Amino acid sequence: MAPEQARADACAADAKGSYARVELYRELNCVRPSVSVGFTGNGDRPNFATFMNYEGSVYDIDNSRSSIAIAAATCARLFDGRDYTGADSGLLCAPAGSTGFFADLGAMNDRASSMRVCPASTPSGCDRPVVAPAPAPPAPAPNGSPASPNARLSATFLRHRSRRTVRFGRGAAVQVVLTGEQLQPIAGAALQVRTREVRSGAEWSVAPAVTTGADGRALVRLAPGPSRRLLVEYRSHIGDERPAAGDVVRLNVRAGVLLRVRPRRVHAGRVIRMSGRLRDAPAGSLGKLVTLQARERGRWRDFETARTRRAGRFSARYRFSRGARGTFPIRAVARADASYPYATGRSRAVRVRVG
């Protein structure tokens, strides 16, 4: 757009000494309100969102101006984007003897987000800045020595087993071996460890990482808790999205069941009372079903059920028939199910003598 001569009463002429002045207007035809942008010689305004002019006033003039007046012997170039990105307005210059008035910025209306100002004698100072290419990201650091994208990782319990079952309240140790393509140990490698309870809806949680020794081995200790899966992964370079190798093991923990029977000696036709507690029982109101069994004729037979209440406690009653005679071992069983993260567990048998 060719510069036009500004009306004498349209644009302020009180430019501060040694400053080139650019007046940005909110509306067309150089109508107030406006913002004065001052520069010494030439200058950059890469971001109009929070702009302070040479008088110390702070303005937000981003995407809000439609016309511009430029001080004599000054050029300006507007950009449709911050940091001189997007399209630009082309060079807008005022002649040496008068202010340049641009009443309509055309495609740049209400879109300018940054601006360069330069003297009309050196218009190349308003050219788009040359942006240096971003430095290349540093090469990812190798993980271990010698790091290998074709590594082999094995995680096992004792006797090289991938599964193990322990009593309630017991933990376990998992031996991890990491080797390269030629089965050489990879030393000093950081291994990511995650665990997940064996129950429906459980999610993986991050466990403390471990580091292999000079022999390529590491030990992961599983504290007492519920049944869970353990996932160990190796990435050949720090920050790799996908692991180069990994392995999964499963620890099954039997439910902890305690049982008490009173009385333990009873006449035929009388009632016994059984009570107990399921350790780490579900917290929900439904509780967990516990089965009571008695050993008769060489087999364990279900004869009663009870549901856990607060703190995992349960109770039940049973009346023996008038013809019952003998000694009957009784136990409580908490069977595995999809919502309870323990394997089937049984209490110690309590012997009840009838007769």
> What is the name of the CATH topology of the largest domain?
Gamma-B Crystallin, domain 1
Number of distinct beta strands: 28
CATH homologous superfamily designation of the largest domain: Crystallins
Task: Tell me the name of the CATH class of the largest domain.
Answer: Mainly Beta
Q: β content, as a range?
A: 35-45%
Straight-line N-to-C gap: 115 Å
The CATH architecture of the largest domain comes to Sandwich
Q: Major sheet: size, sense and barrel closure?
A: 6 strands, mixed
The count of domains is: 3
Regions with pLDDT < 50 over 5+ consecutive residues?
Answer: 1-20
Structural class by SSE content? mainly beta
Question: What general form does the structure show?
Answer: elongated
Order of helices and strands: EEEEEEEEEEEEEEEEEEEEEEEEEEEE
Query: Over all CA atoms, what is the radius of gyration?
Result: 41 Å
Mean pLDDT: 86
What proportion of the residues is helical, as a percent range?
under 10%
Number of helices: 0
Structure, explained:
Helices cover 0% and strands 43% of the residues. The chain contains no helices and 28 strands. Strands 21, 23, 24, 26, 27 and 28 form a six-stranded mixed β-sheet that branches. The chain is elongated and about 125 Å long.
